[in-house]
Design goal:
Elements lengths: L2 H13 L8 H41 L1 H16 L7 H14 L3 H29 L5 H4 L5 H33 L3 H24 L4 H27 L12 H36 L1 H16 L4 H4 L2 H10 L3 H37 L8 H24 L8 H23 L1 H15 L1 H17 L1
Helix pairs in contact: 2-3, 2-8, 3-7, 4-5, 4-7, 4-10, 4-13, 5-7, 5-10, 7-8, 7-9, 8-9, 10-11, 10-16, 10-17, 11-14, 11-15, 14-15, 14-18, 15-17, 15-18, 16-17
């Protein structure tokens, strides 16, 4: 599909049957319309991602071999840990745009976009500078424990490509945050899907020409970056020209506010990361690597089945904009509806996976990785509960409630972490997921609900 056809499709999707936002009823319908479009395109994008993964993984494993593919995955995991390097500024910008859009303060949005873009550009330059200064002195092949001559030769350029790609994506991430903040995330989904398809095409070309690991990494990660870059060109050239980052709109006070909000998001991201990343480490240390494989396969199955994420994510900006416009009735009604929907979808999906999960995993992998009934049941409870957690987090991420959730989110994470260490010895792998269910069940569900509904009630009274 040509670039102009993609742009025309996005323009048609964003303008077709749009509602009059000058009235409360029109704004309500328009929010639901945008949430619906984003949900549909998110599912489509996920489908494209799953298909490209199913095709690319066996191709690359057979082409590269176990050691070189393992090198790729290890470096990619290390890069994922550097996701905190943006200091939470991207999420901070999304929250601020949603709030200011609700106040129709587009001039301030211009200031915040430029300020965030140049701060992130500075962080990216700092990362690149630090990396290339230390690059010649770090034995990357020893660090990732590769032995073959080819893997040793490819380790250094592979790391360099992924670090450069990470740095480029930091300021480019502003594009996605702008679209999400304006409840136009569906536009970003189209470009991400295009990037996935380009990446698959790039891998096929690399394999055809017998290219090395660095070229495969460039083809896959670079394609997504290229798609985001073209998305940015389209955004700043045709859709929102006035938001093009400019130094004349840079403002330190705006930058400080973004960094303050971003700091809160970074704390929440770290807590979430610790809660998820600790699972494999605790299981490996207590039960061995083979038990990790069983847990991870089950986890991947349930993560893939977390359908609620597709309609929960677009609510972030919608809630922020609605609260800023004092559309509290809409916010409360939507929160109730989404909670019922997410819990219902999660419960039905969990029931299906409880009865069919073992058969699915047997067909997908092999019988040695089939989970125990207690592990399967634990993930079923997690899947149902996480629809509630995701919905509440999305609402609390908007505006003045952000900071208030750190206490009970942190308490839930720390409690679950402590229980994982205790229960893994009693219930093996199942103890880890049950620790998460217990920790968040005790310290997140009730406090989050009380904070959300109390804030809406107080706002309506005032």
């Amino acid at each position: 599909m040509k670039l102009n056809r993609i742009s025309a499709f996005i323009k048609k999707a964003s303008s077709s049957n749009s509602f009059d936002i000058s009235t409360e009823e029109g704004r309500s319908k328009e929010r639901y319309r945008r949430i619906g479009i984003s949900t549909i395109l998110s599912i489509a994008n996920k489908s494209v991602s799953v298909v490209t993964t199913l095709v690319s993984v066996p191709l690359t494993i057979n082409y590269l071999g176990t050691e070189r593919y393992g090198l790729w995955m290890t470096i990619s995991s290390a890069m994922a840990m550097l996701g905190f390097a943006d200091l939470g500024l991207g999420n901070g910008l999304l929250t601020v745009i949603a709030e200011l859009n609700g106040k129709d303060d587009h001039r301030s949005i211009q200031t915040y976009v430029s300020s965030t873009f140049f701060i992130l550009s500075g962080v990216a330059i700092l990362i690149l500078g630090s990396f290339f200064v230390s690059y010649p002195f770090i034995p990357w092949s020893n660090l990732f424990n590769v032995k073959s001559n080819l893997a040793v030769q490819e380790a250094n350029p592979a790391v360099a490509i992924l670090v450069i790609n990470l740095a480029l994506n930091m300021p480019l991430g502003v594009v996605q945050r702008i679209q999400s903040g304006y409840q136009e995330d569906y536009k970003n989904q189209v470009w991400i899907s295009l990037g996935s398809l380009l990446g698959l095409g790039g891998i096929l070309i690399c394999i055809y020409f017998n290219a090395g690991l660095p070229w495969l990494i460039l083809a896959l990660s670079g394609s997504t970056t290229l798609a985001i870059f073209i998305n940015g060109l389209n955004l700043f050239s045709f859709q929102k020209k006035w938001l093009f980052p400019s130094l004349k709109f840079f403002d330190w006070s705006a930058g400080k506010r973004i960094m303050k909000i971003g700091g809160i998001f970074m704390i929440l991201q770290i807590l979430n990361f610790v809660g998820l990343a600790s699972d494999n480490l605790i299981i490996a240390n207590s039960l061995g690597a083979s038990s990790v494989a069983t847990y991870v396969v089950t986890q991947k199955l349930f993560f893939t089945a977390f359908i609620s994420q597709f309609f929960i994510t677009p609510l972030w900006a919608a809630f922020g904009e609605a609260m800023a416009r004092s559309d509290y009735v809409w916010a409360k009604k939507t929160l109730n509806r989404v909670l019922i929907l997410s819990l219902g979808v999660g419960l039905m999906t969990a029931i299906v996976l409880f009865f069919c999960g073992k058969s699915i995993i047997t067909a997908w992998t092999n019988e040695s990785l089939v989970p125990s009934t207690s592990l399967l049941l634990g993930f079923c409870c997690w899947l149902t509960m996480w629809g509630y957690v995701g919905t509440m987090s999305t609402f609390l991420n908007s505006g003045f409630l952000l900071k208030k959730q750190i206490l009970f989110f942190g308490l839930a994470t720390c409690t679950s972490l402590f229980l994982k260490i205790i229960l893994v010895g009693q219930w093996r792998e199942a103890g880890v997921i049950w620790a998460t269910v217990i920790g968040y069940g005790l310290f997140y569900i009730i406090p989050a609900g009380r904070l959300a509904y109390k804030s809406i009630s107080v706002s309506m009274e005032n």
